[in-house]
Amino acid sequence: MPCSAVTLSLATIMAIVSTALLAIAFSTDNWLYTEVNRSHIKVSFSLFSICY
């Protein structure tokens, strides 16, 4: 069963890489804050403003 050994090896490597990337993401402070004004979007894209 060499295929299962390869799959297990790739899964282990990907788990280590993903854990490292997750640690880098949480250690840096480059997060963006996005605020969405839903009422403004509803008014600007209402049915009558598009059709007329």
Question: How does this model look, in words?
Answer:
This protein is mainly alpha-helical and 52 residues long. It has one domain (2-51). It is 73% helix and 0% strand. The termini are far apart. This is NADH dehydrogenase subunit 5.
N-to-C span = 66 Å
Q: Outline, from the CA principal axes?
A: elongated
Q: What portion of the residues fall into strands of 2 or more residues? A: under 5%
What portion of residues is helical? over 70%
How many helices?
3
DSSP summary, beta strand count: 0
pLDDT averaged residue by residue: 84
Q: Which H/E pattern describes the elements?
A: HHH
What is the quaternary state of this protein? single chain
**Which parts are unreliable, with pLDDT below 50 for 5 consecutive residues or more?**
none
Major sheet characteristics: none
- Structural class category: mainly alpha
Rounded to an integer in angstroms, the radius of gyration calculated over CA atoms is: 23 Å
When the domains are counted, the total is 1
